[in-house]
Structure formats: structure tokens, C-alpha cells
Amino acid sequence: MSSAARLGLAADAATVLHNSNALTLRLLPCDVLARVAAAAHQCAQLEVEVARRLAAVGSPVAALESPEVFVRGDHVVTLWAYYEPVTTGPIPTAEYVGALERLHAGMRKVDLPVPHFTDRVSEAQRLVADQVRTPALAAADRVFLAGTLARLRQAVSRSDRPEQLLHGEPHPGNLLSTRTGPLFIDFETCCRGPIEFDLAHAPDEVGDHYPGVDHRLLRNCRILMRAMITAWRWDRDDQFPDGRRFGNEWLSELRKATA
Asked: Which residues form the Aminoglycoside phosphotransferase domain (predicted)?
């Protein structure tokens, strides 16, 4: 609220919209969305710059309220336009595919230094290898998860598909249904890699209908993505709602997918 006030925005109340590893709030009466995250685990400046540049080339992205990143103690705050949802149902596949195509087209016009997708895989691998950070992960599951990450990382890295700037996690939770059409949010996970890595985070039917997809690579990316998010659920500091239950379920799904 104090960050909004610095911009002359009226923010007398804050309503929590989502609370996970980052906190999302709706500020009223100015009707602005605030994202609050631990500074040590955030790339807020990169996220803001990516969103700003993508908006400039006409990509389907949520608008910034301010390009400034506010530092509040150990946390960072960014301010965005708030969009009233126009539907509670899933975005139709054709609209999802079209929005992602336009996003990728815009990203090919943006040149920014971002991590490679393998850097994100490395983070998951380090987490699995660190028993202090993942104390509840059983020994057999640790060996299986480490092997899956290593094997699929190699398989995806050997692909000769072109690489480009990616969203990193364009799943349905990061795509808003608005009056102006679907808009992507949350660009702190941006990386470079083949588009199949992005499509692995989208619903299966989106990847299946996206033009020019390498379906074998997409399958490998889907397994790699599932292994990564499974690893994060076992982090002792993870705040994903009901994360441990998902961690167990996804381990089971991974075993079936790699059998």
C-alpha cells in the first residue's frame, strides 16, 4: 500500500488473491495488482523489463502500472494493472494457442540476457541432491528424481530445434481471461530454449495443436517439466498450497511416464 501511495495511487485496502511462493494482492480503490516476493529469490527487475518490452511489440501481456521495482526490507513489490476475470472456465484451446503463438512471436523480437532452460533444471538437480533442503524426500525417490532430471535434461539439450526467449511457465494460472482477450502474466521464469519447453507447461491440447511442434521433444519436455516441479514441492521452504501431496502424486505420475 505504501508503494502504491508513492505513485499517488489511493490504496486504503489490500485483498489477498493468491499466496504461494509469492503474494498477489488487489489494492483498492485504485484497483491495482501488487506482487510481493522475497528479494533473495526474485528477478523482479527482469520480469518488469520483459513485460515492458513485450507490451511495446504488441504481445498479449498484462500491463504494468509502474516500471519501478519497490524494495521493502527483504521483499520486492511490483505494481500491475488489475483485470476483472471475464470467465471462470478454461480458456478455449484455439484462443490459448493463438495467444501463445503471439507471445512467442513477440519474444523473438526481444533481446534480453536470461537464463538458459538448463539453468532452471540445474536448480532442481541441486535441490534433489541437497538432503538438508529436501529432508522428507525418501532415498529411493531421490535417486529416481535425480536420474530422471539428468536423463531428460540431456535428451532435450540434444535437440536441434531453434531456441528463443520463452515465458518459462505459461500454464493456465499465468494466463488471464480478460475483456481484451487472453493475457500472460508472471515473467520471472523467463529463459531461453525450444518452444516445446514452454508448451510442456500448457494443457496437453495446446501443445498438440500448436503449429510446427516436435512431438517427441514435447513429450520429453513434459516429463522434464514434471520432474522439475516435483523437486520443488519437496523443498522444505516451499509454500505451494498442499505441495507435499502434489509432490507424492507427481512422483507416481513420473514413474508411469518413464516406465
From this structure: 41-203
> Which helix H or strand E contains 122, and what residues bound it?
helix 117-129
Domain match, 238 and 149 both: yes
| Pair 77, 184 in one domain | no
Three-class SS state of 237: coil
Q: Phi first, then psi: give them for residue 167, nearest 5 degrees.
A: -65, -45
CA distance 104 to 202: 13
Q: Which three cell numbers stand for residue 121?
A: 533444471
Cα–Cα nearest to 153, from 123, 114, 188, 183: 123
Torsion of CA 22, 23, 27, 31, to 10 degrees: 50
Phi first, then psi, for residue 55 (nearest 5°) are -60, -35
Tens digits of per-residue pLDDT, 215-240? 999 999 999 999 999 999 999 999 88
The pLDDT tens digits for 68-122 are: 999 988 999 999 999 998 877 899 999 999 999 999 999 999 999 999 999 999 9
Same-domain status, 52 and 114: no
Q: What's the pTM value of the predicted model, to 2 decimals?
A: 0.92
